[in-house]
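Hi team,

Below is the intake form for SdpI/YhfL protein family from Terribacillus saccharophilus. Please confirm the fields before the structure is written into the shared record.

FORM ID: S-0412
PROTEIN: SdpI/YhfL protein family
ORGANISM: Terribacillus saccharophilus
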Amino acid sequence: MLILICGIGHLMASLILKTSESGSINRIAGYRTKRSMKNETLWKLGQSYAAKLLVFAGVMHIVIGGIVLLFFRYDNELYLFVELLWVIVSLVTIYGLTEWNLKQKDEEMINKKDR
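The structure came back. Fields below:
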């Protein structure tokens, strides 16, 4: 059940990122890290990349959550911890991939300036 609910939350978060992508850097909504707020290019890249990953993860969570609800009974506390671990791992992966992508783009922009 937790995976299913988090999948819906991921899809809603991706919509927020998509709407904040078109605007300028803000401190209220969006993928806000030190690197993503460094300049407009990184801001827009961070918003769009994280939104794509969140859509993928959200759909995957909804499918997996639906399968779990159909075929498994929640009679053990272990299911909750497995679901929680799954959601945490997916969010950490999304954060890591987005930051890695931003770092690559930032280094690329620095190398262009140095030439």
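SUMMARY LINE: The chain has one domain: 2-114.

Thanks, M.
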